[in-house]
Each structure stands twice: as C-alpha cells, then as structure tokens.
C-alpha cells in the first residue's frame, strides 16, 4: 500500500503492524509525525499539532530538549553499552541515589527495568521474593482494581482491569488475582479534584482478605490516579484506607506511578501529593522524558534487606533482570531530566498551573456530548457519550481534534489530557480551544 506521493510518507505502510492501532483504518489515511519541538508536533501533511497528552504522558519537558540530547550524545561517545549483570557503570548508581532522594520515606532501593510493564512485573516478583525470603511463601495472591492499567505482559495485564486487553488472553492469566471495584461513582461526574465520596470502596480489599485469607495475599497494586481509563481521581481518604488495610494484614502496597510519577500531580510522586506511602513504586515514561525506554522500581529498604539477607554472600539474591536494565543511554537521559526538574523547579510549576488547567478543562462542560470531566494536577479526563458501540465516539473525537491541530490520547470513549509541564497559559488556552473545535466537529459530523 502506497499512501501518497508525499516525501514524508514511506513507500510501503504494509509491513509495520502498529500497536494498539486500528491498522486498516490508519493505513487508509495515515497520521505521521515528522518533527517535534517544545510543545508542538509537525505532521507529514505540513500541519502543526499542539501536544495535549505529552505523547503518551511521556514528554512533560517538551520535545527536542538540547540538554537531554547532549547528555545522550556524550554518553554514546564515551560508553554506549555495558552488560548490566555482575558488572556495572557509575551512572546507574548516581541516578539511583538521585531517584532515592525524591521518593518518599525509605523507598530508596532502585531496580531498573525497560518500561512500565516490566516495572510492574518486577514489583510483582519482588513482592513474592520478599515473602519467600521471610519464609512466608503462602503469600502469592495479588489484588488489583477494575479500570486499572499496568501494562501488557502477563503479570501486569492480570492485575490490570481493562476488559478489552484482558478478554482475549483469559486462558493464560496469572493465577490468584482478585480485583477491587474502580473508584468512579456517578456523583463524581463533574467534580474538580478529589471527590468527597467513595473512600469506603477501599474496603473491597478487606472483603478479599476475608474471602481468600490475608495470609495468602502478597500485595495490592493500584495507580493512585487511574490514568489510562480516563483519569479517575481517588476519593478523599481512599488511599489512606487502603494503606491501613494493608498494614493490618501485612500486605504490601504497590503504587504504579508510571503516569503520576515525576510531577504530574504537582509533587514528585502522587504518594507525596496524597500523603500515603506505599511499599513499592513503579515509574517509567517521564523518567527519561520518554526519549529512551526505561522503567524503575523503588522499593523500601527493609524489603531489599530481607531479600539480600536470605542469600549467602556470593549468590545472586534475585534471579531477575533485563538486558537493558539501566543501560547507559537511558541513564544519561534520566540524569539530564533530573537536572531539569531541579533547575526549572518543575514540580512547583505544575502546581502553579493546576488551577488554570482545571478551570479551562471544566469550561468545556457546556458541550452536550460530554458526560464527565475529571482532573488533578496537569492531568484530565473527559468522557464522551457513547454512540453505536464503545470506543467509536472517542476515536472520532480524537481524529477531529487531530484535524483541528491537537494531539491527545483517547481510551475507549474517554479523552486524556496531559499537557507538557512547560506549557504556559497560552498553550493551555490553545489546547482547550482546539478541543472545543474538535468536539464540535464531532457533534456536527456524527
Ligand atoms: C500506570 C501504567 N502502568 C504501566 C504502564 C505500561 O507501561 P509501558 O507501556 O511502558 O510498558 C502504563 C502505560 O501507559 C501505565 O499507564
């Protein structure tokens, strides 16, 4: 299939099987990005898009950051790769110290992975390894939540709660996983920030301990704000209640902060923003400004110590890792990102823009097809009323917004708005103006 005579279109679109994409539809009318700078993307058709979702929440510092590019170039010239098993290099230790200064309390032991999914998989394995090291090997069950998203490998998929992702693979899911109900209630529809109602939904975990025996449960994993199902904000007191139930029963609490980590809420981690410290935090995406794949798992010191002490000196304490765990090119990008976070006081910048973002987002409420709007920090979700079948409206609005000059991420009929942290008010205005235009075109054309 040759899409057009444009020099920006490859000769054939046939071979690349695109992920999470309506391939046949895309190949009829491709949307190709050719360049990116700051908060803008250029398309193969010569149009410009403002990046309303920071890619896939990946590029909060904007595109084409010279500091990051230079750091990667310098690293590649000095040391392009080294085996990460049984040997290392200085940068990964330096980065681990820096990350540990930002994580809450004693979550100061840092394991590198290659993406969010592998960070979650690693958190699952570390939880099991911890209890085995303690001699508590009946604890193999995990509790996730409906409408959670934790990635696409089998462990992460199983603890997640996105039906379309799970259904085709039910025969190979990880055993022993239960799900709590999600936290989105009908009275949350146009709530700004954290809803007042729904903290008691955390008691689902208590019920699961009664059904399966707390002594069999290793960990409970949640996103503090469920990102990929459209930004579901935790009700006030909900995360605190989960923490208490975990403490009561000796269950580990894992926060998947692949989306919320590194400033999205206005604090380094949502854990600090909501005042609840989990035992393990997973992160990815913004860690390298999305430029080089990298996942990170931050673990409480006591968990690390328990696993270390269970193995005699000279033995490998955890039989787990990836070829690309903490490779130099990813570390160099992440170190440059850490410098920018500090130099530009990025997390406070997010905090100072949050209210403006909130008001702009909720100003769209008058559009008839919008069923719900939610927000926290620089993260927003909009539900578009379903037409014909789930996901159709969301996809149509996404395409109309693209045509109007706005890049955003749809999931089902929800639109995710996650602007880069470097956005000024005029950029947020542009995002909301284009969102309005895109939604209005959808209402007119559908
Ligand atoms: C909360 C969360 N966890 C895990 C993942 C999986 O990350 P990756 O796609 O890098 O494997 C995602 C991806 O969007 C995510 O949002």
Task: Provide a concise account of the structure shown.
The protein is α/β, with parallel strands linked by helices and 446 residues long.
Treating each run of at least 4 consecutive H or I residues as one helix, how many helices? 15
Q: What is the strand arrangement across the widest sheet?
A: 4-10-9-8-7-5-6
| Share in helix | 25-40%
- What is the CATH level 1 assignment of the largest domain? Alpha Beta
Helix and strand pattern: HEEEHHHEHEHHEHEHEHEEHHHEEHEEEH
Low-confidence stretches: none
Distance between the terminal alpha carbons, to the nearest Å?
28 Å
- Shape type: globular
Please identify the structural class as seen in this structure. alpha/beta
Total domains: 2
The CATH topology of the largest domain is given as Aspartate Aminotransferase, domain 2
The set of bound ligands, ions and cofactors reads: pyridoxal-5'-phosphate
Average of the residue pLDDT scores: 96
Query: What would CATH call the homologous superfamily of the largest domain?
Result: Type I PLP-dependent aspartate aminotransferase-like (Major domain)
How many strand units? 15
């Amino acid at each position: 299939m040759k899409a057009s005579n444009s020099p920006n279109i490859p000769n054939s679109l046939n071979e690349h099987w695109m992920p999470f994409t309506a391939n046949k539809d895309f190949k009829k009318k491709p949307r190709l990005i050719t360049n990116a700078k700051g908060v803008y993307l250029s398309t193969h058709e010569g149009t410009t898009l403002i990046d309303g979702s920071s890619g896939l929440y990946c590029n909060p510092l904007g595109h084409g950051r010279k500091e990051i590019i230079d750091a990667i170039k310098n690293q590649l010239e000095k040391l392009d790769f080294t085996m990460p098993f049984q040997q290392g290099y200085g940068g990964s230790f330096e980065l681990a110290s820096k990350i540990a200064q930002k994580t809450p309390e004693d979550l100061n032991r840092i394991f590198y992975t290659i993406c969010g999914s592998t960070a979650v998989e690693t958190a699952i394995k570390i939880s099991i390894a911890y209890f085995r090291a303690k001699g508590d090997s009946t604890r193999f069950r995990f509790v996730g939540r409906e409408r959670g998203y934790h990635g696409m490998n089998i462990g992460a998929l199983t603890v997640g709660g996105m039906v379309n992702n799970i259904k085709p693979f039910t025969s190979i899911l990880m055993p022993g996983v239960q799900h709590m109900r999600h936290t989105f209630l009908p009275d949350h529809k146009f709530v700004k920030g954290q809803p007042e109602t729904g903290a008691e939904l955390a008691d689902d975990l208590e019920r699961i301990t009664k059904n399966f025996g707390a002594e069999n449960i290793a960990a409970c994993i949640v996103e503090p704000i469920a990102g990929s199902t459209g930004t579901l904000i935790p009700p006030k007191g909900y995360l605190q209640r989960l923490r208490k139930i975990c403490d009561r029963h000796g269950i580990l609490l894992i926060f998947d902060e692949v989306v919320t980590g590194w400033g999205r809420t206005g604090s380094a981690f949502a854990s600090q923003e909501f005042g609840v410290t989990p035992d393990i935090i997973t992160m990815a995406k913004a860690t390298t400004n999305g430029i080089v794949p990298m996942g990170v798992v931050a673990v409480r010191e006591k968990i690390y110590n328990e696993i270390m002490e269970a193995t005699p000196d000279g033995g490998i304490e955890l039989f787990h890792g990836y070829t690309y765990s903490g490779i130099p090119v990813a570390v160099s990008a992440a170190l440059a990102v850490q410098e920018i976070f500090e130099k530009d006081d990025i997390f406070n910048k997010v905090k100072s823009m949050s209210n403006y973002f909130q008001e702009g987002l909720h100003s769209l409420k008058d559009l008839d097809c919008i069923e719900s709007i939610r927000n926290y920090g620089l993260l927003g979700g909009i539900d578009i009323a379903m037409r014909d079948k789930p996901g159709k409206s969301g996809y149509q609005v996404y395409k109309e917004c693209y045509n109007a000059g706005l890049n955003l991420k749809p999931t089902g009929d929800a639109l995710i708005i996650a602007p880069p942290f470097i956005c000024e008010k005029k950029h947020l205005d542009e995002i909301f103006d284009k969102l309005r235009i895109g939604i209005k075109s959808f209402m007119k054309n559908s």
